[in-house]
Amino acid sequence: MLSIENLHVSINGAPVLQGINLRIGKGETVILFGPNGSGKTTLLYTIMGIGNYTVTKGSIVYKGTDITDLPPFERARLGIGMSMQRPPSIHGLKTRELVTMCAAEREVDVEKLAEKVNMQNFLDRDINLGFSGGEIKRSEILQLMAQKPELVLFDEPESGVDVENMALVGAMARELLEGSSEPDESHSMITLAKKRVTSGLIITHTGYILDYITADRGHVLYNGTLCCSDNPKRILDHLHRFGYKECIRCLTQ
Ligand SMILES: Nc1ncnc2c1ncn2[C@@H]1O[C@H](COP(=O)(O)OP(=O)(O)OP(=O)(O)O)[C@@H](O)[C@H]1O
């Protein structure tokens, strides 16, 4: 689904990502940990193609197409969607209009989608203008639900979200990534897992999102380099006990 090879990215001439190699298969969800400023958001933005990031080396291939130099709208058309940590407010653009734009040619019932994330009363407000942290997250999820991307990039889905809203954001993130089917007599959990088509790349500091979604793998991004690959809950446990300083040892071994 996504294949990143030897990716080097600079911001205003300063190197931030230095030789990232990452593969995410169809239906796979990958968690990205890393200390502040290590380059996690830079990686997600570079995959989406937004912001002032310059790819100085390497490539990003999505579903067989080299998207390294494609504009963001073409990446979105190919099926990549992103929930930003701090999306911009846009004066004059109503939430309803943006949600409809996200759906592109597909017919969507905007009201019904909005109800799922308690955003009915926000549809006629300018997007993100004056929204609280939790409202911004719900609005981002609403846009993704309308877009139905095949690769979902989540930048810190927990940030600014209270416990109750976390349950909602978590449930909707799970629905986006894993669908809403439950095991029954003819569908086992394994069969359902094999049928998954949506992939995810999720940045988290707290790991709360892991209470809601099933992640296949975790990585730590340290100083612009990916330094480990393991079960995400095990990585989180190690980080809680030893902090990021152990990553230096892994990088130099
Ligand atoms: N527009 C910019 N101009 C200059 N430097 C930038 C710019 N955007 C990001 N950076 C720098 O790039 C580095 C990586 O930033 P990035 O936001 O990717 O880190 P992060 O791992 O997502 O951090 P956090 O966990 O704090 O969100 C940081 O040192 C940051 O200051």
Overview of the structural elements:
This protein is of the alpha/beta class and 253 residues long. It has a single domain, classed as Rossmann fold (3-Layer(aba) Sandwich), CATH 3.40.50.300. Helix content is 34%, strand content 25%. Strands 6-7-8-3-9-10 form a 6-stranded mixed β-sheet, with helices on both faces. The longest helix is centred in the last third of the chain and has 16 residues. The mean pLDDT is 92. The structure holds adenosine-5'-triphosphate. The site of adenosine-5'-triphosphate has 12 residues, from helix 1.
Number of strands: 10
How much of the sequence lies in strands comes to: 25-35%
CATH T-level fold name: Rossmann fold
CATH architecture grouping: 3-Layer(aba) Sandwich
Q: How many structural domains are formed by the residues?
A: 1
